[in-house]
Structure formats: C-alpha cells, structure tokens
Design a protein that fits this description.
It is built from seven helices and ten strands. The structure holds aspartic acid and magnesium ion.
Amino acid sequence: MALYVHKYGGTSVGSIERIEAVADKVKNFRDRGDDVVVVLSAMSGETNRLIGLAKAITPDPDPREMDVLVSTGEQVTIALLCMALVKRGLLARSYTGSQVRILTDSAFSKARIQDIDTDRIREDLAAGRVVVVAGFQGVDDAGNITTLGRGGSDTTGVALAAALKADECHIYTDVDGVYTTDPRV
Ligand code: ASP
Ligand code: MG
C-alpha cells in the first residue's frame, strides 16, 4: 500500500466530464488499496477569467484582494471532485490551502511555502478518505489568503508530496498522460 500525491491541471478538470474521469482514475488507486492525496488546479480558463473581472474594476487591484479572488477557482474544483468521489462510494474531503494550513510568507501573488501542517491530512488518510487539496494557495501567519504564482498548483503538489513523504508524486498533464517524480529526491 503506497501513498500517492496526484496533481491534475486545469484541462484535466476543465469540464464535468473530465472531473468524472479524474474521479475514476483516483478510484482505481483506492481500489488497489493505495492512499491518495489529490491537488487540483482551477478549471482551465477560470483563473484568467477571474483576473479579467478584477481588471474590469481597476487596472491596479489590491494585492490582498486579488489573492482572495483568484484562489476561488481551485475551491470549485476540489468540491466538485469530492462530490464525484463520494458518488463512487469513496470517502473524500476537500480542503483549501488555508484549511490544510499551507503556511506561506505574505508576498501576495508570489508567496513562498514555509510549512505544511500534515496532521489533518494524515488523520483523513487513516480514516480511509481521499484528501483533495486546492493547489496554488496558502495562508500567511496573519490569516490572509495567499497565492503562489501562475502554475502554482504544481508547486503545491510537489511540496505536499515532500511534506507527507509520499511514495510518488504524479503530475498529470491530462487524465491519460502521467509524469512521475520521486518527491524524496
Ligand atoms: N489556477 C492557477 C493558474 O491558472 C494555478 C494552476 O493552475 O497551477 O495559474
Ligand atoms: Mg500548469
């Protein structure tokens, strides 16, 4: 029995059909008895759409509020994937970066991860749950939502795999293609 971190990008969760396909893939791992922590991006195009909304208000949006805004895309996909997993008879729980407590510095839009609290994730895995984490985001020590920079869900996936000492971290570019890296290297 191994612990896998799977990261799925925006295209892989870009529609309900794709999200259902991700749920099937995660279920395959669970059915083999493996533990899975999933890190997701927002649906493709969503982060750009959110940035566009902000820019429609002001060319120079407040950095703190920008991160509150752009972090919402991932909150949508983690909830939808958990619903799809539960529909398949699996136990699953979603967490935003702040809920996990992915602690970062306060550099809005380009925050660096400082620490990841793995206690809650480990409790969920021990209870037989798939844990689904929002990529691209964290929280600073004052409780402000932060984001890690464009493409930051990959960073979340690799950092979480290292923090959990996962056996493998799979960065999926789509549901069928798999890149495997060893988080311990
Ligand atoms: N949704 C964010 C972006 O579009 C993060 C990511 O997808 O990795 O940059
Ligand atoms: Mg990417």
